[in-house]
Amino acid sequence: MGGKLGELFVALAFGAALTSLIALLKAETEADAGEKRKWERLGLGAFLTHALSILGVVLTLFLLIYFHQYQYHYVWAHSSNELPVHFMISCFWEGQEGSFLLWCFWHSLLGVLLMRKPGEWRNLVIAILASIELILSSMLLGVYLPAGGVQVLYAVMILAPGAYLAWRYARQRSLLPDGGVFHLAGLMLALMAGVLLLRGQLGFGLPLLPGAWTFGSLDGAAFWLFGVFFLSVLVLYVRQLVRTRERTAAAIWDQAAGLLLLAVAVAGALYSPDTWKIGSTPFLSLKAAFPDDPAFAQNPDFVPTNGSGLNPLLQNYWMVIHPPTLFLGFASTAIPFAFVMAGLIRGKYDGWIKPSLPWTSFSVMILGVGIIMGGYWAYETLNFGGYWNWDPVENSSFVPWLCGVASLHAMLIYRKAKTYLKLTMLLIISTFLLVLYSTFLTRSGILGETSVHTFTDLGLSGQLLILVAMYLAFVAVAMAFRWRELPQREDESKVWSAEFMLFMGVLIFSFAGLVIILTTSLPVFNSIFGTDFAPPAKTQLFYYQWTVWFAALFGVVSGIGQFLWWKMGEQKRLADALFRPFLAAVISGSAILIGLMVSKMTFAYDAEFAAYISPEATGSGFIGKALGYVKFGIMAIADELLLYSALFGLFANLDVLIALIRRNRKGLKIMGGTVVHLGFALMLMGMLFSSGYDQVISKNLMPADLAGFPEQERVDNVRLPRGYAAPIQGYDVTYIGRKEARPPVSGLRVLETRPDYFRLSFRDSTGERFMLDLPWDPFVARKADGSQPVHPTADVQPASSPYDESELDFAAIEELLNRNLDQLNPRRNNNRTLYGLTFTSREDREHQFTIYPEAELNEQEKNILPHPARKIYWNRDIYVFTSSLPSEETAEPKYYNLSLRQGDTVMIGGTILQLLEVRNLSGIPQMQQYDVAAAAHVAVFAGQDTFLARPVFVIKDRAPGMISDAVQPLGMELAFVGVEPEENLIKLQLKYTDPRSDFVVIKAISKPFINLLWLGTFILTAGFMISIWRRVQELRSGPAKESV
Amino acid sequence: MKPLHIAILAGLAVFMVALGVNFSQSASIYTDFATAKRKDKQVHIVGQWVDREAAHYDAAQDLFSFYVKDTTQRVELVKYYDPMPVNFEQAEKVVLIGAYDQDAFVAEKIVMKCPSKYEPTQIQQ
After folding, report:
1. What is the number of CB-based contacts under 8 A between chain A and chain B?
2. Among the listed residues A534, A367, A370, A497, the one whose alpha carbon sits nearest the alpha carbon of residue B109
3. Are A537 and B118 an interchain contact pair (Cβ–Cβ within 8 Å)?
4. Which chain B residue has the Cα nearest residue A798?
5. Which residues make beta-bridge pairs with B45?
6. CB within 8 Å: B62 and A716
7. What percent of chain A has pLDDT over 90?
8. Per residue in A907-930, is it b (16+ CB within 10 Å) or e — as a string?
9. What is the pLDDT of residue A427?
10. Percent of chain A predicted with pLDDT > 70
11. Residues in chain A within 8 Å Cβ distance of B111
């Protein structure tokens, strides 16, 4: 039911987006004012309908998840009964369908916001957004075309361009304004030839199939011939477009429509599997997803009682807000893009800058915050020991941000000096296309071996690729069509001008993006050319070597740029003005470097760089040596340069900020940009210190180990058996055991019922939730007449539980839990085990802290995910994670039941236990609350050590209880469980965990000044907010004079 | 063209050349043990963990040693100076990044490709 409603909403959203696109374009070309108004109303109404439908899809999916409707594949695959409501939101982005939905949702929301403000750009901008929404909501359709349908559609795709051209020719007697008929005919011929050559010969399942594209085979050669032919005709065609004189909006649409159809035909030629799947619906039933599953063979109406759950990595509050933030950032890049496209279509190149500027700032801010959130999540949850891993998935969201920053600076140049318009437009377009490209990279599975993230391909990468290609074709046409017309103004700015510094900013960010995207795209290159290049083995080092220069340039350029922007020093006075921050940077930078030297902290890559001048690397030749020294020299000073430059940027921006606030009352309002640069300078310093000067402090310093192992510096992990203190740098660290549930319990509830057991959730004394599986029978309340409820036999109702949770005797369960909690071994509700580590400072014994790295059991995958723990100081983090854990079986405790008379001995696992005596404790004040209290004194002999354990047995209100006693170093815990008076036997229970099996191997890293990174992020975001607020104010108050 | 533009263009040209050279030097390749042994360079090797019983972690040296079969079915000893990575047992494929050091392949980094973390592939009751 709910699923049908959801599907209806999806279809409605798709149809409404299409209607909106067509109606708004019609409104744009319509000359008659009344007609225009009619089309406009239809288009805007359709967009609103689209937005509401998307909201409907979101709500439907959420309700299905909320009410555990596991007959739907998406709900079953991504949620479970145990999932708290706030993590249900995360179900939306675990699956591909959900992420497209989220993306759609943001676009439609932003569109509705834009719709409210009438203005000359509104209709076209909404139309462009509708076109994007059309593509995205088609990814949610989930339409399957059987083989016959594919043939028909395929024929249509091939024939449609021809039909379109014939129709055009019949109507207008020309194909292109300037008689480009030959080029277009050539194009069609090339296409048909290519189709004939390739169809049936190349087994294209998907484009970008490795191997099929190489020159090795006849097919490959044919393909490349076709490719070259096609491309050269395309170039001729575009050249024709550029030269054409008829530049009306209608002409653009004609050209674009023609080219889109051609793109469809090309796609049809390349992408031709037997059946087609258009989009993937989140409302697919489980049965449709797994038609052959035995569960359905037994019972066609089978519905699982629980879902397979959300990936534990996503069960983190950062994962509730990081993906939607990132997607909002992605979605908002579409707005400046829509403005650019609207300008191109209309042939108006000026007016769109101003209304789109706050949106560019907004998208850069949100995307930046989203990326940092992801980094913080990785830092807090994953074990790789940092916040950034240069993984392709991370890079593919970082590059659009870099490009967005470049486009923001380009827009500012254009606003100030009316130069570089083409560059500005290209950068805005690239930002948006990079977002699409990054979606393709992460969702197509093409990253394969290069990424630790495993994204499965839902068979949609072909569709996504075609859609992106069509979009690209459209953008290329529009850009080519207008290229000659675009105003071009010679750049007359001097070196020491704000414009030039802005231009440097554009270069810094776009080239940083270029380096990263080229390296990240290596798998794409491999797929196309059948090569087997791998990313640089030393990934971090490679990216450091390149990005450090951009970062270093940023400090200097932003500092000088801000002075020039606010005209705080005309040319000859500039040197004077900059002298103060320069001096401050030199002094503080040198002080920091001396401080680092004194505390013997070295830069992370010093050893790598030193290797450049080693004889093995340089060889004996002079040139080799010289090159080695040049490389060494360049790289060895890079981090120092970055430090000085970031400090200079910091002080210069601070100087400007103070001056702005002093200079006028408006200072607070206009300081946005300065604050942003200040924040970024702080972030760079946080990155430099925390990653460049991080230190593994868990190097084992045990003297016994130091003997005889020459490779000692490689030992970064320390193995900690429970209870022993191991010396590491600066601390003694002790593994104090796992954090366990403590009685008394409260808040009992049943999570899940199964035929043979139920899953109980309860709170321990600290208020934390635990869960436990318990059998039904002992806890089902007896009815008044003393009979048990009827127990249905298994073959009557195989899949349901025999009892209802209302029949359970919760008082009895609670009593059992309070009595035997330590033996029942309940798990935390989130399936996490916490390993207690106590650090004692060796300089100051009083300074001690305990942190708990976690290990999370993923029930479904049966694997363990470790999470780090941190001790946060103002000037550094101590970052600790378990790099190895004993497997569950060996760490499982063993129980021995002992019945001993006074003086008896028993031997267990190499230790001897002797029951010395039993003491009556009833007279002792602390024990007065009990009716009976007795302690068994047991001596434990292990080698040369003797321990005394004193477990206590109590009775209160005729209920027995125990206070057990542990011999920590031996992994023993003794409980006094009862007495048999007639035999004179004392009954003890020994819980024995092999101490060798209860250990953790940890790695501890000190990360200095990482807080600067987070602080910088906050300042940067605040700066953006101020600046966006000001730009919006400017828009509202109409054309204001250029603020200086 | 002003001198400034020429200077910027020249700078960009130098930059791109440097990037190309540096990339070709630091780029690694996906390959097998036989090729890795010949090359004195860090490579990526895709393979499977075999002879699981023979794997061993030496806490004192902080060394995990194990055997991997590459795509050409050749089995080699791999040394990894860290404990066994978490979830190593579940990985259906491992990517070793490292180089030969005398008789054994020393992995600097291991990337594990676990069976899909995102999409369950069958119903478990």
Report:
1. 138
2. A534
3. no
4. B125
5. B31, B96
6. yes
7. 29
8. eeeebebbbeebeebeeeeebeeb
9. 96
10. 79
11. 449, 452
Give the angle subtended at the CA of A958 by the CAs of A952 and A960, to the nearest 5°.
30
Identify all chain A residues contacting B59, using CB atoms and an 8 Å cutoff. Answer: 719, 1001
User: What residues contact residue A469 under an 8 Å CB cut-off, 6+ apart?
Assistant: A263, A266, A267
The pTM score is 0.83
ipTM above 0.95, yes or no: no
* Choice among A13-27, A168-182, A668-682, A683-697 with the minimum mean pLDDT: A168-182
HSE-CB of A970 using CA atoms within 13 angstroms? 26
What is the crossing angle of helices A571-598 and A622-663, to 10°?
Answer: 120
> Residue A984 region, left (φ>0) first, then alpha (ψ -120 to 50), else beta?
left
**What confidence tens digit (pLDDT) does each residue in A431-484 have?**
999 998 888 888 777 776 666 665 556 667 667 777 777 778 778 878 887 888
Q: What is the mean pLDDT of residues A161-176?
A: 61
Q: What is the mean pLDDT of residues B55-77?
A: 87
Partners of A775 in the β-ladder: A757
CA count, 13 A, side-chain hemisphere, A52:
7
Q: Which residue is associated with the tokens 């030496």?
A: B58
Please provide the DSSP assignment of A261-274 as one string.
HHHHHHHHHH---S
Closest CA to A132 of A418, A413, A429: A429
Closest CA to A481 of A664, A301, A254, A288: A254
Q: Which tokens hold the place of A974? A: 């003794």
* A49 burial type by CB count under 10 A (0-12 exposed, 13-18 middle, 19+ buried): middle
What's chain A's length in residues?
1044
Q: What is the DSSP letter of A957?
A: T
Q: Which of A471, A407, A404, A405 is nearest to A436 (CA)?
A: A471
pLDDT in tens, A723-761: 778 888 889 999 988 888 877 888 888 887 777 778 888
Q: In this model, does residue A613 exceed pLDDT 60?
A: yes
Interface of B with A in 37-66 (CB under 8 A): 42-44, 46, 57, 59-63
Which member of A77, A511, A884 has the closest CB to residue B15? A511
Q: Which two tokens stand for residue A396?
A: 């593919």
Nearest to A932 by CA among A908, A904, A964, A962: A962
Contact state of A449 with B15 under an 8 Å Cβ cutoff: no
- Compute the distance between CA of residue A991 and CA of residue A971 in angstroms, rounded to an integer: 8
**Is the distance from CB of A8 to CB of A54 less than 8 angstroms?**
no
Q: Please, what is the average pLDDT of chain A?
A: 80
Band the pLDDT of A125: cuts 50, 70, 90. Answer: very high
To the nearest whole angstrom, how far is the Cα of B76 from the nearest Cα of chain A? 20
Collect all residues of chain A within an 8 Å Cβ-Cβ radius of residue B29.
532-534
CA distance A447 to A455: 9
Is the separation of the CB atoms in A734 and A728 below 8 Å? no
Whole-angstrom distance, CA of residue A617 vs CA of residue A613: 7
Distance CA A177, CA A243 (A): 10
Q: What share of chain B is helix, strand, coil (3-state, %, to 5)?
A: 25, 40, 35
Taking an 8 Å cut-off on Cβ atoms, the answer to whether A449 and B46 are in contact is: yes
- Give the start-end residues of each E strand in A983-1033: 985-992, 999-1008
A992 and A942 Cβ atoms separated by less than 8 Å: no
**Which residues in B lie closer than 8 A to residue A323 (C-beta atoms)?**
none
Q: Read off the pLDDT band of A296 (50, 70, 90).
A: confident
Q: Do A515 and B116 touch (CB under 8 A)?
A: no
Q: Which of residues 73-102 of B touch A (CB under 8 A)?
A: 81-87, 89-90, 95, 97-99
